Amino acid sequence: MRVTCLSGGVGGAKLARGLQDALAPGELTVIGNVGDDVEVLGMHVSPDLDSVLYALAGLNDEERGWGRAGESWRTLGAAVEWGGAGWFMLGDLDLGLHLVRTEALRDGDRLSAVTARLVEAAGLETRLLPATDDPLRTFVVTEEAGRLAFQEWFVARRHADEVDGIELEGAEAARPAPEVVEAIEGADLLVVAPSNPYVSIGPILGVPAIRDALAGRDARCVAVSPLIGGRAVKGPLDRMLTRMAGGTTPAHLAGRYEGLIDVLVIDRADAPADAHVPLIVTETLMRDRASARALAETVLEAGA
Question: SS3 for 7?
Answer without folding.
Answer: strand
